Amino acid sequence: MDVLLMYIEYNPALKAGLFFCLGACVGSFVTALHYRIPRKLNWSTDRSRCTSCHHTLGIRDLVPIASWLAMRGHCRYCGASISPRYPLIEVGFGLLFALISCL
Questions:
Q1: 3-state DSSP call for residue 81?
Q2: What's the pTM?
Q3: 17 contacts: CB under 8 Å, gap ≥ 6
């Protein structure tokens, strides 16, 4: 474990990439909270759903940034458009975390 941590510490690109992934996940969680809290939905136990057809989203539908790109910005189940706001927030958080990791 110590060798892995030392490798990450001395490889800034790897460190920034890991922090970008962590930030994208945090950004995804923030967008979920932003959607659920005003609608009084349970943010801790409810599953994510399509806002159009209300189909429960699977694991492959929830990968930050990659899912939106793979599905070309549309719901896998009903084809409704998904706002680019979601991946943009995830990218923003990812870049912020990566920048902080370089300080």
A1: strand
A2: 0.88
A3: 98
